[in-house]
Design brief:
two-stranded antiparallel ribbon, 129 residues, mainly alpha, single chain, 4 helices, 57% helix
């Protein structure tokens, strides 16, 4: 059998899509709580964790780095953003306009990831013909 890492990028894109999905839910929750006194906005960290994981791998090519990533350790994490900062007197720090922009950006990212995953499978399908 040929040793192939053909799904390394697909698995990584799947993990990134999961993070974008979680971020979408968190942003929706922020928007829902935009008028809740004392609510602090939340966000998801994934890209910085991925960047750190890729830079810590000593292999030279990106293919090798992705092949040797430990995807089990690479998980999106929700955190409270600017917990001590507030836009209003009621302690809430959600700016609805910013949240809508971040939501749109995240949706574009998610759609791009899904299209890339689909394209990878289409490429595999055409190779197998």
């Amino acid at each position: 059998m040929i040793n192939s890492n053909i799904f390394d990028y697909v698995n990584l894109m799947d993990k990134a899509a999961d993070a974008a999905w979680i971020r979408n839910e968190v942003i929706s929750n922020n928007i829902s709580n935009a008028t809740t006194p004392g609510y602090k906005r939340q966000d998801v960290t994934f890209e910085s964790e991925l960047e750190k994981a890729l830079s810590s791998v000593r292999y030279e090519t990106m293919d090798d780095k992705v092949a040797h990533l430990s995807l089990d350790r690479l998980n999106p994490r929700t955190y409270t953003d600017y917990a001590s900062f507030s836009y209003r007197l009621d302690g809430n720090n959600v700016d609805i306009e910013t949240e809508n922009v971040v939501l749109a950006k995240n949706q574009v990212k998610y759609e791009g990831l899904m299209m890339s995953i689909t394209r990878e499978f289409q490429n595999l399908k055409s190779v197998m013909k």
